[in-house]
Amino acid sequence: MPESPLRTAVDPAARALLTLFEGPLSSVRFPDVDHDILEELAAAVERAAAEVEQARTLLAAAEAELDARKTELLARAQRAKAYARVYAEGNVELGAQLDAIVLPRMPSRLGSHAVERPGAEPDVAPKKRGRPRKSADGGTLFEGAAPAGDVAPAEDVAPDSAKVPKSDGRAA
């Protein structure tokens, strides 16, 4: 049978000694130390561990509430700043004061803590969609080909059958 979390608060060596005082040493009494005193101290340790666990649970709940309140405040502050920017469009001084206020961005699911930078571009450009270009340097399909002006007119070129002799597949 597994031990409860409260029973594990007592050091295993102290628990083993307490077990000895429950068994073979149950009738032995030393000054300020006997089975009853050790059992009472072990119970006090377990109670204190339970209080600590309860305090941790309350702390976690309080921290979650604090985070929720901070998130709500940040969202409202960002909305207020956006409204104030519209309001201050004609007022250069007020606009400068608003631009000096840098609010953190809303935390994402990944937990980033980015900061809003007025007039700044996003850190990462969105990924382009579609098929990538065949040549990144902008080169043409036929590198080193003659420009269009250097091509001979079609009537000056001999037909393909006249240029290439037919072969029966054997090497010459």
Characterization of this structure:
The longest helix is centred in the middle third of the chain and has 53 residues, at 35-87. Helix content is 45%, strand content 0%. With 172 residues, the protein is mostly helical. It is elongated, with a radius of gyration of 41 Å. It is built from 4 helices and no strands. The chain has a domain at 7-100.
List descriptors.
disordered N terminus, 4 helices, mainly alpha, 172 residues
Terminal Cα separation, in Å? 93 Å
Q: Taking Cα atoms only, what radius of gyration do you get, to the nearest Å?
A: 41 Å
Mean pLDDT: 78
Which regions contain 5 or more consecutive residues with pLDDT less than 50?
1-6
- Classification by helices and strands: mainly alpha
The total of helices stands at 4
* Helical coverage, percent range: 40-55%
- Sheet with the most strands? none
Overall spatial form: elongated
Order of helices and strands: HHHH
